[in-house]
Amino acid sequence: MFDVHDLSRLSPDQLEEELAAQAAHVNAGMARLLELVGECERRKRWHDDLHTFAQWLAWRLSVLPREAREHTRIGSRLAC
Predict the structure, then answer these.
(1) CB 3.0 to 4.6 Å from 46: which of 5, 42, 56, 72, for a disulfide?
(2) Domain range annotation of the chain
(3) Distance of alpha carbon 76 from its chain centroid, rounded?
């Protein structure tokens, strides 16, 4: 095994493998996040003082409103 914290010690092949592994983790995490978004919207689990779920999501996740709208759009379609 190699020390993943010292990137300068990784061979080009090890660096490429670590990059691919991290991308897989990010993609899996995003898929799960979108599933959760769809389910949360379906259950109408957001605060009534905000007008839309996307507004609440932007606030709760500290993301831009445009990103929250996209997450909401995709998440709702995955929930079907």
Answers:
(1) 56
(2) 13-78
(3) 15
What CA dihedral angle connects 5, 10, 15 and 18, to 10 degrees? -40
Q: pLDDT of 6-22, one tens digit each? A: 889 999 999 999 999 99
Ramachandran angles phi, psi of 68, nearest 5°: -65, -40
Contact between 38 and 78 under an 8 Å Cβ cutoff? The reply is yes
Distance between the two ends of the chain, CA-based, in angstroms? 43
Residue 7 CA to residue 25 CA, distance in Å, equals 18
> Who has greater pLDDT, 29 or 43?
29
- Lookup: tokens for 24: 């897989």
Token pair, residue 52, equals 């839309």
Euclidean distance between CA atoms 45 and 48, whole angstroms: 9
